[in-house]
Amino acid sequence: MDKRLFIILVLSFWLTACEESGTNSTQNSSAANSAAKSSLVNGEDIQSVSSIRDDGRPYNMQPLLNTWPTLPENNPVAEDLLQTNYYVVLDGSGSMAGGDCGGGKLKIYAAMEALEVFAGQIPASANLGLLVFDKNGLSERVTLSSNNKDQFVQAVKSVTVEGGTPLLSAIRTGYQALSQQAKAQLGYGEYHLVIVTDGEANIGEEPESIVGKIGRESPVMIHTIGFCINEAHSLNQPGIIDYKAANDPQSLQRSLEQVLAESEDFTLDTFGE
């Protein structure tokens, strides 16, 4: 073989190998998010299913979809990736000072008592957080974490009713808190947004857009307890929101207990069914 032809063939082979190496490097980089989520979870190897395509249905109706949350580089990882998370949004608007449906007490006091029982029933290993809108505005009163039940109850009892009902802002903030925790858990575990409200949203604070976003892109379960309002509430969206109407303190308490009961039915074994 001519020496020049031999050198040309060798160079061509070398350039082709370099191009393939660069392509593989790019593919490996884009798969970093999926690789992190296919690591060991509490000692059990969980297979990555990131290749599953979104078919347009709500996220929770696609059990193999694994695209939430988007993980940043150098993402801190929680010790328990399978923790259950409950983030409560409590309506402290002026209408909660009414006595209808309160069983002889103000609606806010009935809600306080029900949430105190709810907190006591949550597993010790679960994370609990609280956001309130009331006289003091809309703000997170308890950061999503574990071993904070006493702090949660105290914050609930400190609510001072007054003001409107900014449901859009409240739900968006709650979703952000759950999404941040989901990054630490690599998307594993359970995520529950629990809303207790007695009225419709302010103009400009309609929640439909954020509810649709949550349903499309995440496995976050939205539970709404409509206290002393009818079934026509904007948060009563079958297939997207678990909505329960409560017309007295007893049904309010039962509705919160059902949130926990439904959570207990969810296990890693049933995830792929």
UniProtKB/TrEMBL annotation:
Transmembrane segments: none annotated. Pfam families: VWA_2. Residues 85-227 form the VWFA domain. It comes from the Bacteria. This is VWA domain-containing protein. It comes from Zooshikella ganghwensis. The lineage of its organism: Bacteria, Pseudomonadati, Pseudomonadota, Gammaproteobacteria, Oceanospirillales.
